[in-house]
Input
Amino acid sequence: MATSRKPLFDPDEKTATEGTPVALPPEEALADEALDEDGDAPLTAPPEADVVASRALMVGALLDRASLESKRDASRFTALKTWVDELGLFGNLGADGVELFEAKLGSWSDEDIESVDWTGEELQLLLWALEKAEFPAFDQRADTAKLVASLPLLAVAEPFLEEAALRSIDDLEVHRALCEAMLEAIRSEVYARSLQEDPSSFESDEDLEELLTSVAAEGFDREAAAKKGPANEAVQGLRYWSRSLLTELFASGSPHETHRIDSAALVGLDEATLATWLGIAHARSEAMAWLLEGDEYETEE
Output
């Protein structure tokens, strides 16, 4: 699962990521992110419905452009560029995204195609936010062809933009919490596996130590785990943390029960499936962050 080398929508926004750990407990991580470099709370504002709709159209157009790499339909390529330009949709893309979109048919690398393919996860959540799609399960990739087919590509798009309506902020917040907790749990498992596969690569760091201290306060037996070495202590601590996240996330009465994933099932996933889940969770977390913070999210370092 490659990381895009060409930022599509913004230089700081990616469509997929490798499995780097998120070691800080959420309340402390959020406390750090809540302040800007001057120690002040940043001003954030969710994008308006027509802005979300415009972005959905651009993502759909980009996905359609990706399909032309194999179809080599020059007339559709020309029509697609004209349609995007007339609606002013290029403003949704970063400079590299525009360059990629307008590149000669057949010039995209496999990495370019894969990177754009991951934006299907974003399109799913944009359409969900616009009440035009269901919130997807985390164990399935978005049906990109179906999503793109639901958009008015190369057609009159003004009604889609002008009549757009968004779900409530509360609904968006609830589902952002789901995406971020799932991402954290999956990243922790990815990190645990990397240490399990090569214990000699273990290097303690402040964030990991802080996490281990946190889970120890919740009942994790660090002393027992450390008897088999520091790498084993870290592996077991990371999995304890992941298990705790999922247990709390899907507790009785949780609004997320329909998306329940058992921690044992997560540990038992094969490598390819785990990598896919990581990409899904990351792409959806990024999409939810943009839906709630808009441009402020995209400009954060």
In short: Residues 1-7, 11-34 have pLDDT under 50 and may be disordered. The first helix runs from residue 26 to 33. Residues 11 and 94 are 7 Å apart (CA to CA). The two ends are 23 Å apart (CA to CA).
